[in-house]
Amino acid sequence: MSIQDQVHTAREAAYKLAVATEKRRNEILIAMGGLLSQEREAVLEANARDAETARKADLAGPLYKRLVLSDRKVETMIESLRSVVALPDPIGGQEAKRELDGGLLLTRVRVPIGVIGVIFESRPDALVQIASLGIKSGNAVILKGGSEAKETNRVLHALFARAIVEAAPELAGALQLVETREDIKAVLALDDEIDLMIPRGSNELVRFIQQNTRIPVLGHADGICHLYVDSGADEVMAGALAKDSKTQYPAVCNAIETLLVHESVSSMLPSIVATMPEVEIRGCERTRTVVDCLPADEDDWSTEYNDLVLSVKIVDSLEDAIAHINRYGSHHTDAIVTHSSEAADQFLRRVDSSSVLWNASTRFADGFRYGLGAEVGISTGKIHARGPVGLEGLTTTQYRVVGAGHLVADYAEGRRSFTHRELG
Amino acid sequence: MSIQDQVHTAREAAYKLAVATEKRRNEILIAMGGLLSQEREAVLEANARDAETARKADLAGPLYKRLVLSDRKVETMIESLRSVVALPDPIGGQEAKRELDGGLLLTRVRVPIGVIGVIFESRPDALVQIASLGIKSGNAVILKGGSEAKETNRVLHALFARAIVEAAPELAGALQLVETREDIKAVLALDDEIDLMIPRGSNELVRFIQQNTRIPVLGHADGICHLYVDSGADEVMAGALAKDSKTQYPAVCNAIETLLVHESVSSMLPSIVATMPEVEIRGCERTRTVVDCLPADEDDWSTEYNDLVLSVKIVDSLEDAIAHINRYGSHHTDAIVTHSSEAADQFLRRVDSSSVLWNASTRFADGFRYGLGAEVGISTGKIHARGPVGLEGLTTTQYRVVGAGHLVADYAEGRRSFTHRELG
Fold first, then answer.
1. Interface test with B, best of A104, A170, A396 (most B CBs within 10 A)
2. What is the pTM of this model?
3. What Cα–Cα distance (Å) separates residue B235 from each residue in B131, B179, B266, B267, B356?
4. Tally of structural domains, chain B
5. Which CATH number characterizes residue A139's domain?
6. Closest CA in chain B for residue A351
């Protein structure tokens, strides 16, 4: 089947999935979990073949680690399918109900988006997560995994396609797998059929998708996050938050890359950096007068290290800290440490980022920690969804009007007028 | 000033506007109305110069009509500024409030998007509307009007820029005017500085913007809307709704282009088309056996006439009507006439359009009629905002977290756990 036919099949399935009941969608998810449990050996065997190929090709350590499945990881996949079943239904809810006039009723209803394309790298559990969130929210999904997990992804996709056919045969085709780079190019060109692209992976992947399609893209390329230590901050808290924000998991997007410190508390810097001796510090000139470290250059302020490296800058004011973050940051997640509620208020309102925190680690910026139930991704865009995105990010709305033969001419010509009464 | 400098100035002003109080934003709007009232002669004089140029250039009738201002139209502009002052504040509202753990509080707050680019054609009142909605929602706006209204737009922009300086000097630069086609190209390239483009005008304009920028675009190119007359529909209601949906204002996007009729009620067709003798009918083969009309060809089903022309097709089933609309329509606005609540339910849920109506005219699909207070545009995209878009469409959200030194490591290592308690 050509990519065009695959995507068209998904689109047709999406129309049916959009009106499937929550029960039916959950039955598919339960069937997916059942088949995955039953066929776990087949999944592990396929994964072993991928791992073997990866070993021969000397795949980089972290990628290899993400690729390889274990009994425990498959069990976690099955658990995650169950947890998606338990999530509240993201579609069908009425968001607004308004009487426009007697007998003329407007509602705004949550509906699925339609067809979503997801491109992910190496980890096969991403396929499970995205396929399940897609079905839960009534969307068809075009899946493209990393070539290094090709065999695993094929088996997982075949199992889930079988689960759909067994649980809801009319929805066959709602999950489509595409495999090659050429396929991706074809997918990115189908902006009439695909409603949203979600790239999950490296900055390079996200940027490539953003720059090569007219389909809206949900996600973020960079995570250049900051912690700002304000004048009068608590020294112990500042050290603990800096350490947690930098080192608790340095490879992820919501870890900080730059520490900003108000000049009045620059004397705290030695004790702050002492909390994380494993971190390479790159400081501005003033920082280097109080801490023994490498010099930071202009590029450091806009670099996402994703590693145990931290740039440090002493600033003259809260104003300067906010200006630095808005200029060099990626509008992702930034935090302030301060005792002043006035300074915190300024920071939270004026830093133009999807998440802003006061006296808390930047690492909290995450769908699960925020209590969204599931995370589709973190968006630094300001359109549609911003920050950690839950299932709601896979939905849109539709206006529905019910009348009794109402005509606009009657209102335009003054024979009737609108009541616009909010209901329920 | 270069376009880059203009947009950068707007971006800087946007940061300040984002934290301006509602009172301050309303004061600007009041100053805008005051200056417009005071300087209405200057506006009318500039408009007379534009009209003179347009006459010499033989500008098409409808464009000329939209361009020319009168005392009455200026008065309407002033009234519209007052009505925007009276609208509820679209920003600052808390949408979600959740305790993540003791002392760790998450809120999601409505904030302005930032910098919005608006491109509109001929009618100078669009400048007033968009500038005021932008200021109300805390956004800086880059304005590009039609070249035929150049003089009028210059005077209006100068007045509003002066109003900002007088009412809130720190926000100077929040409204920028650009004038040439080259300027537009430069604007469309600034996807790092501009957050949203709103083209208001012809299908060609919208399509040009969509195809020439990476900035998200809010709007719709086509309005190919349908009315479907189901089996067992009331003949009089069907005729009245068809006439209203087609003729009440045929040049707008929510007027219908195609009438679909269930074969069991095709005998109603003569009386339905008799309600609108001024309309040219183009019928499918079966239609032509009951109505004397021109033949419709395949292209007619996907043509937006924006005129007194209507294509008519007899379909075998509700199923076929829905399939026709999803295939040939533009996902804008579609309506069903029926007595069957079951058929209506199927139609409303399965037609993939931003507005769907049952026994009501498609012409109701409009921000004012829907009671949104103001209309930014009608979006057929599924991302961000769909259907008639009010002031909420000019806002986004920001997550704000307040803690007391909370660290993620404590949760990752099992020393603490999340409460995720919904508040307020």
1. A396
2. 0.92
3. 45, 51, 10, 10, 20
4. 2
5. 3.40.605.10
6. B15
